[in-house]
Specification:
Layout: H1 7-20, E1 34-39, H2 50-68, E2 72-74, E3 78-79, H3 84-93, H4 97-114, E4 125-126, H5 130-145, E5 149-159, E6 164-166, E7 171-172, E8 175-176, E9 184-193, H6 199-204, H7 214-224, E10 226-236, E11 242-246, E12 257-261, H8 265-272, H9 275-285, H10 291-296, E13 301-309, E14 316-322, E15 333-336, H11 342-351, H12 392-405, E16 409-415, E17 420-421, E18 423-424, E19 434-436, E20 442-444, H13 471-474, E21 475-477, E22 484-487, E23 491-492, H14 501-504, H15 519-522, E24 525-531, H16 537-551, E25 561-567, E26 570-572, E27 575-576, H17 587-594, H18 596-605, E28 613-614, H19 617-641, H20 644-648, H21 660-681, H22 685-701, H23 708-725, H24 730-739, H25 756-759, E29 763-770, E30 773-781, H26 786-795, H27 797-803, E31 810-814, E32 818-822
Parallel strand pairs: 1-2, 1-24, 3-4, 12-14, 24-25, 26-28, 29-32
Antiparallel strand pairs: 5-6, 5-9, 7-8, 9-17, 10-11, 10-13, 10-16, 12-15, 13-14, 18-23, 19-20, 19-22, 21-22, 26-27, 29-30, 31-32
Helix pairs in contact: 1-24, 2-18, 3-4, 8-9, 17-18, 18-19, 18-22, 19-23, 21-22, 21-23, 22-23, 23-24
The protein binds one RNA strand through α7, α10, β17, β18 and α16.
Length: 823
RNA sequence: GCCGGGGUGGCGAAAUUGGUAGACGCGCCAGACUCAAAAUCUGGUUGGGGCAACCCAGUGUCGGUUCGAGUCCGACCCUCGGUACCA
């Protein structure tokens, strides 16, 4: 059997062909409609995992489909090469991060090639190369010039044993994951990018992102968290006034205490003469910095013995230090209204603080806080003097105006979004291009001295960043002088690299600029594909960065990603594949065993792209079985259907097709095609594959040898099915295309179009329901009127059994679907 | 805690978005081929009842709207993603 299905041979041959003919290299062609399909670039962790395979197969199917629709398709690939895992590997293997990273890239690139992805490899980029990050440093200088980059104190996880900053991921139950030491909150000076200056635009433009999943749009809206409220101050004797922000000014008369962060100046000052407060502040340092931790930990506090003066009543309100308030988020102080806020209520109950209701219960019942009958929703104000009986918006206005007139407050818009902290105290990242003079003031490294190159040949044995201990790196001079200076040894957050890589793909080889005019041919990205875990951070930073580039005149659209698809995870045994769970299925083994087409087919078939997919060895074998059957079917039939090739080139070939069997096959084929095309457009590839299998089941049962009409009909279906499968299983499709004697390459073939004539049928099947329950079905002429359908349904013998002896109250006819008789 | 998803046969899922619940595949059962097994092919396969035609129940739980609900509304349970230094 020379015509056995041997994927290894077929796939290697197809890949060589694509490589040699540069089939996926694309150029700007103003004559053609462009389509930019982008998959999130991988972190080069060592090997591809199934999540990558799924992500990139989805992107590849989209790209190949769009190409067959006649578009000029760009699909690039690159490496998100900076990051923490390289440092961990360096410690574990005593390999410098750069070496480890480049080796991984080499291996993973080979794996990607073996999966047959239609990438334009000429545009490959690696974010840890100085050619790439040079432009990041250059752009940072532009942000400095505009005042969009600045320094401020900010909290980090400090490991007192290793004397280093830990990522949240490196903190386990409050302890450093290697040292086991209790982690401390520590404030250090860090670089920030002013994303809050773009908060309004980032929020408003979410409305225009119609090609994005609603879930992501909602999450981004909530993350930005625009609120309208009032900001006002409490006078504090001998101190600066204490500012707070609230969205509930209607409850201001219910304030019974104020909480400030443990790091707040008022707390620190109070601690000097009070060991209890000092101890509490020390205790607060032993906490993680995550929001989750902040919100779920036990709420603790101590009174500072100082009071703020209520701006309306003039009452003295006790100020507490609390562990759930963080310095640096807002003012570091919050007002507390325990009668109408769950957290404040719990805190007040614990510390026996006054609970003063100022909003009437909705049903008029009295407040009973021992039972916890808490009104947290807005309502009618009470116990608030002149503001009594106002509703929420009236009270909001009246109280805001009151504070504004007395110059102690004002209405304001607030965002939950905080500025983007980009400093990382790590080695394996892009150096922040700044030096510090002897006065400690930061000075930008001039453009002509960029890039500031990260030394790659380093000893990395401990957890400390090697460049922080390397005078050869950090000792320098102030630009344009001989004055000694010290380099910034922090590096950028790796989200910096992934915020603009999609634009750089458009400008391969450009050494003199960050981007050039080619970017505006390809951008914005038409379809972005990646994991839902990036719903907020990466996708928000990338949107922000794009607007920064727009305002720097480098791109001329407002949003980087027109459509977004978030693929689900790959699970095994109901949980995510991971090393720690020991449930990893190695894509390489699967490719070796079955071939890339089988792996691609399985992963597209098993689940809709947005949903989690469960790995199933048996189903993979099933996908392979299908390809083998399809392959041998074509081998068996290709001679029979060969003579019809010329005939099918005439667009009106089917007009003379009189054989009923041939016409039936065409009806089935085009009905399935109609569904398949719809599903391709909607990126429902699991049902595309189901449709392909269904069509194939029909073809296998079809007798093509009956006559020439049947042979022609089968040829149409076979060629069509090969096209339908080709974006998903491109190698076998490429080969069979040639075996079928078709011209050119299938990747440039025209996508099949539904023949409306072929769909036509004389009759239609209708379901008969009685009281909404299925009781019978009937075949009626398509031309039947509503009346005719009703009377046929009522006379139907099976339906009669449920109608007889009862009054027909009404009859509902849904054309083409059903009749429901209500008795 | 907060924000956002998801719960449908033994399993992955489908259902033209309010109109036949379970397409397609996996698994399983039976049969064919074989000395036998594997592979392959054919048929069956939501559960319960019935010789059968058929009947009843059924889409996480409870309630509601509707001629009709997996789909819409309300409450709840479980689970997954994110939570600003994992990427």
């Amino acid at each position: 059997m020379t015509h056995e299905y041997i994927p290894a041979e077929i796939e290697a041959a197809a890949q060589d062909y694509w490589d040699e003919n540069q089939c996926f290299s694309v150029y700007e062609d103003p004559e053609k409609e462009k389509y930019y399909c982008l998959s999130m670039l991988p972190y080069p962790s060592g090997q591809l995992h199934m999540g990558h395979v799924r992500n990139y197969t989805i992107g590849d199917v989209i790209s190949r489909y769009q190409r067959m629709l006649g578009k000029n398709v760009l699909q690039p690939m690159g490496w998100d090469a900076f990051g923490l895992p390289a440092e961990n590997a360096a410690i574990a293997n005593r390999t410098p991060p750069a070496k480890w990273t480049y080796e991984n890239i080499g291996y993973m690139k080979d794996q990607l090639k073996r999966l047959g992805f239609a990438y334009d490899w000429n545009r490959e980029l690696t974010t840890c190369s100085a050619e790439y990050y040079k432009w990041e440093q250059w752009f940072f200088n532009r942000l400095l010039e505009k005042g969009l980059a600045y320094k401020k104190m900010s909290v980090v996880n400090w490991d007192p044993v290793e004397q280093t900053v830990l990522a949240n991921e490196q903190v386990e139950k409050g302890r450093g994951w290697r040292s086991g030491a209790l982690v401390e909150r520590r404030e250090i000076s860090q670089w920030f990018i002013r994303i809050t200056a773009y908060a309004e635009e980032l929020l408003n433009e979410i409305d225009n992102l119609e090609g994005w999943p609603d879930a992501v749009r909602t999450m981004q809206r909530n993350w930005i968290g625009r609120s309208e409220g009032v900001e006002f101050t409490f006078a504090v004797e001998g101190e600066e006034p204490l500012g707070v922000y609230t969205t509930r000014p209607d409850t201001i008369l219910g304030i019974t205490f104020i909480s400030v962060a443990a790091e707040h100046p008022l707390a620190l000052k109070a601690a000097t003469g009070n060991p209890d407060i000092a101890a509490f502040i020390r205790e607060c340092k032993n906490a993680n910095t995550t929001e989750e931790e902040l919100e779920t930990m036990e709420k603790k506090g101590v009174p500072l013995g100082i009071q703020g003066i209520h701006p309306i009543t003039g009452e003295k309100i006790d100020i507490w230090a609390a562990n759930f308030v963080l310095m640096g988020y807002g003012t570091g102080a919050v007002m507390a209204v325990p009668a109408h806020d769950q957290r404040d209520w719990e805190f007040a109950r614990k510390h026996h603080l006054e609970i003063r209701p100022v909003i009437k219960c909705p049903d008029g019942t009295p407040h009973n806080y021992d039972e916890g009958s808490l009104t947290t929703k807005d309502g009618v104000v009470c116990n608030s003097g002149q503001f009594d009986n106002l509703n929420y918006s009236e009270a909001f206005e009246a109280i805001a105006n009151y504070l504004e007139e007395r110059n102690v407050g004002r209405k304001t818009v607030n965002y939950r979004l905080r500025d983007w902290g980009v400093s990382r105290q790590r080695y394996w990242g892009c150096p922040i291009p700044v030096v510090y003079g002897e006065d400690g003031q930061p000075v930008a490294v001039p453009d002509d001295q960029l890039p500031v190159v990260l030394p790659e040949d380093v000893e990395f044995s401990g957890v400390q960043s090697p460049i922080k201990n390397d005078p050869g790196y950090y000792q320098t001079s102030l630009p344009g002088t001989r004055d000694p200076a010290t380099r910034e040894t922090d590096t950028f957050d790796t989200f910096f690299e992934s915020s603009w890589y999609y634009a750089r793909y458009c400008c391969p080889g450009q050494e003199d600029a960050m981007l050039d005019e080619r970017a505006n041919y390809w951008l914005p990205v038409d379809q972005y594909v990646g994991g839902i875990e990036h719903a907020v951070l990466h996708l928000l930073y990338a949107r922000f960065f794009y607007k920064l580039m727009r305002d720097a005149g480098m791109v001329n659209s407002d949003e980087p990603f027109t459509r977004l698809l978030c693929q689900g995870m790959v699970l095994n045994g109901g949980v995510k594949m991971s090393k720690s769970k020991g449930n990893i299925v190695d894509p390489q083994e699967m490719i070796d065993l079955y071939g890339a087409d089988t792996v691609r087919l399985f992963i597209m078939f098993a689940s809709p792209p947005e949903q989690a997919v469960e790995w199933n060895d048996g189903a993979v074998a099933g996908a392979h079985r299908f390809l083998r059957r399809w392959w041998s079917f074509v081998q068996r039939m290709k001679t029979t259907i060969a003579p019809a090739r010329k005939q099918l080139q005439d667009p009106s070939w089917s007009r003379d097709l009189t054989d009923t069997r041939a016409r039936d096959l065409r009806r089935v084929t085009h009905r399935i095609l109609e569904r398949v095309n719809r599903d391709y457009d909607k990126i429902h590839y699991n049902t595309v594959v189901a449709g392909a299998m269904e069509l194939f089941n029909h073809l296998e049962k079809f007798d093509a040898e009956a006559n020439a009409h049947c042979a022609a009909a089968l040829r149409e279906s076979v060629v069509m099915l090969n096209k339908i499968l080709s974006p998903i299983t491109p190698h076998i499709a490429h080969r069979l295309w040639h075996e079928l004697g078709e011209e050119g390459d299938i990747m440039d073939a025209r996508w099949p179009v539904v023949d409306r004539e072929a769909l036509k049928s004389d009759t239609v099947k209708l379901v008969i329901q009685v009281n909404g329950k299925l009781r019978s079905e009937m075949e009626v002429p398509v031309s039947s009127t509503r009346k005719e359908i009703e009377s046929m349904a009522v006379r139907d013998p099976k339906a009669q059994r449920f109608i007889r002896g009862k009054d027909i109250r009404k009859t509902i006819v849904v054309p083409g679907r059903l009749v429901n008789i209500v008795v």
